[in-house]
Amino acid sequence: MKNLAIVPARSGSQRLKHKNIKLWAGHPLIYYQINCAKKTKGIDKVVVATDSKEYAAIAESFGAEVIIRPPEISGSKSKTEDTLLFVIDQLEKKGEIFDNVILLQPTNALNKPEFLKKGLEAIKDKKIKSVLTYSKCKRFFLDDDDIISRPMSTDKKTRKMETGCFWITNIEALKKEKNRIVKPYAEIEVPEINGLDIDTLEEMNIAESVLIKQVREEEGKYFKKREYDGDFEDYYGPKKDPDGKLRDISKEKDHKIEFCKDEIKFINNLYDDRKERKILDIGCGAGFVMSAIDDNKWEKFGLEVSRKAAETAKKYIPNIHIGVLKTDTYPEEFFDLVYSNHVIEHVLDPIDFIRKINKIMKTHGHLIIATPNFDSGAARRFGENFRLLHDKTHISLFSDFSLKQLLEDNGFIVDKIEYPFFNTEYFTKENLMRLFDTSKVSPPFYGSVITLYARKK
Hints:
It is built from 14 helices and 20 strands. The protein is of the alpha/beta class.
């Protein structure tokens, strides 16, 4: 079966002028349905039907074909079915024949390819002539018989409310009935938020709050990726640092505690009562930071991928899990504080990593997370000679701004960002002088590493 997607986008919106091309989450509104269709396997052609050359140029820039619709079917009272039939007729005149047409309204920007996939599967049944979407509704309507008795929502009959995510119609049936919905039809359930039909600025602002997260994730706005095919088992053995000095971090307990002294002080001073709380150190290494955490205030847990490091950490952390963080590693709402010191840059999927952390944290619990800042002043000045690119296991590269966005988009409030340097051993005249020579590896400098303090909403 051949499937044609049509996105009607007229220019004469009354309530919100030019809403179909206004920029939301960085893209014109029509982009989202075009992008959804192009990402859906089984859609053979995407056409934007518009009365505007400006809209046409924008649609073409996103890879859609454009057909200009005449004024008589471009008014505020024009039926969408007339536009569908017009586009189909224009394509058939060129010998392009399709079995089904998919109507995608620009104002339903929260549509998803997985919804379309279900619809396309349903229309394969020759008995089905059209497909529509709905969301479940248990609200009270004023003409309901139970508006006074008000039963519990669990006892109230579920009603199906049509959404505008998409309609799929057999073309021969559409020509005959002149309607996008033809019986017998199939119903595809979608979450209520995804069925939001944008007609006002307030509705657009709601949709944008969802779209912006989607765009940042899809377009890699949170972090940059690097390839690495090794493992971390030898990470704690002797190795050269960016300056060529041979170091063994498994023996640098005092150095680790000194460098993380601000985080340690924060954790130990966090609560004044005597209640014992649970703390998790993700990527605990040899357990040096947890060795400085008050045993009387915290029940300590550690997670570490290196078996060698974990064996050492057992001296300081009673509860050690060897492996990566998985959905079922810890119970939901379990930890009062999660600490992750220079781990997220090693993680293949940091977005999933943060979501898993959020799940295992208690509501209002604290997260302390540190990582290199790959958009710092030194990183920009030294480029490939930025010292923290030296470690090939740094595969997910964040900036202070992008990590803050990732946390805030996934259920956290960021209280502060710190840039450890001036109160460390690295704040020396020698390192400051090294800033002038960009032909060599960058020195440690202010802003090159960051620590974010956040709370779960």
